[in-house]
Amino acid sequence: MANGKGEEVKLLGAWASPYVARVKLALHLKGVSYEYMEEDLTNKSELLLRSNPIRKMVPVLIHGGKPICESQVIVQYIDEAFPSVGPALLPVDPHERAVARFWATYVDDKVLPPWGMLLRAKTDEVEERAEWMRQTIAAVDALEEGVRECSKSKGLLGGDDVGYLDVLLGGMVPWVYATEKISGHNFFGASKAPLLAAWMERFAELDAAKAVFQDVDSLVEYAGTVLSGTAVSN
C-alpha cells in the first residue's frame, strides 16, 4: 500500500507484540497507509531475514523498499518521514524531546524486561517470580514520576496531544490488562500508579488505540501457550 508520495509502506510484525503495536499506533495516528504482513516467527520469511539480518526480529518497517528496524527508531522515523500528515509525535523543544526519549528508553530497559520475565516464569519458580515482580513494581514506581514530568498535569504524555512517549507506552496497554487476568496484578493500577492508570484510560479511548489494540483474552491464551519461549520482538 502506498502513502501520499506513492512510496510503498509495509510493516512486518507479529500480532501479539507490544513493539509492533507501537508502530501500528504511530502509523494510524499519522494517517499513513501501509500493508501489514504477519510473520510466522517459528519460520521467518526471507523478507524479514533480509530486512533485519542482524536481529532477525519484528517489527520492521519497509518504506520505499528500504527497511527500518527497532520500534523506537521506527516511530521516530515515521514522525520525521511523514511530517505533513497527522500530528507531530516528538516535541519540538529539544529538552522536551530529550526527556521523552529518556523515558522511552527507560521503559524498554527497566520496565519491559522484568515484566516479560515475570510472564515467562513458571508458577513453581517462586523466588524468581518474586524478584521479577519486585523489579517491575520498582520500575513502574519510577515511571509514574516520568508521567508526571511529561504530562505536565495534562491528559496525555505529549501534553494536550498524543506524543512519542504515549505511543511507546500505548503499545503495552493490552498487555497490562492481560497481565491482570494472568496474575491478578495490574502494574498500572490506580492505587499504586494513579497517573499511569488515568493516562491508560484516556489513551485506550483514542480511535487509533481501538483500531490497533489486541484482544486481551487472545493475549492471555497466547501467554499460556507461546510466551514461555524466546522473546520475539523489539
UniProtKB/TrEMBL annotation:
EC number: 2.5.1.18
Gene3D superfamilies, sorted: 1.20.1050.10, Glutaredoxin
Single GO biological process annotation from the record: glutathione metabolic process
Ranges where the GST N-terminal domain occurs: 7-86
One cellular component (GO) term of this entry: cytosol
Alphabetically ordered keywords of this record: Cytoplasm, Transferase
Catalytic activity: RX + glutathione = an S-substituted glutathione + a halide anion + H(+)
Leader sequence segment: none
Cell compartments where the protein resides: Cytoplasm, Cytosol
Principal place of residence: cytoplasm
Domain of life: Eukaryota
Enzyme class, first EC level, given as a word: transferase
InterPro entries in alphabetical order: Glutathione-S-Trfase_C-like, Glutathione-S-Trfase_C_sf, Glutathione_S-Trfase, Glutathione_S-Trfase_N, GST_C_Tau, Omega/Tau-like, Thioredoxin-like_sf
Annotated ranges, domain GST C-terminal: 93-226
GO molecular function: glutathione transferase activity
Role according to the record: Is involved in the conjugation of reduced glutathione to a wide number of exogenous and endogenous hydrophobic electrophiles.
Family: Belongs to the GST superfamily. Tau family.
Descriptive protein name: Glutathione S-transferase
Organism this protein belongs to: Triticum aestivum (Wheat)
